[in-house]
Design brief:
- This protein has six helices and no strands.
- By secondary structure, it is mostly helical.
- It has one domain.
- α1 packs across α2 (24-35) and α1 packs parallel to α3 (39-52).
- The longest helix has 19 residues, at 66-84.
Amino acid sequence: MIKEEALEVLQTINEMYPRFDLTKRKAKMLVPNLKQMDYQGVMKNLSAYIMEHPYPPMLSEIAAYGDEEESHLEEMAKWQEEAKKVSPLLKEQFRQQFEQFIKGKER
């Protein structure tokens, strides 16, 4: 998120929770942390948070990191591609050995 979006998040919190009292000092401390987050995700989380809580959120309660989720999805896609390269015979051997392992643990 960019600085303007981070300030928008803080202004929204300030408007919804008058006791939050957004100061320049608070903004200076919180903006760098918000800039590491995904704006749309944070706003979605903030909207849901507002409906449930009468007190202002900590950043960790509304945090959203879009890139982190995408990296997990990319890693899973790589694993799926690697799995496609494994021969059906090897997959069957693994399945049989795994079933034997599970049966051994059930005893």
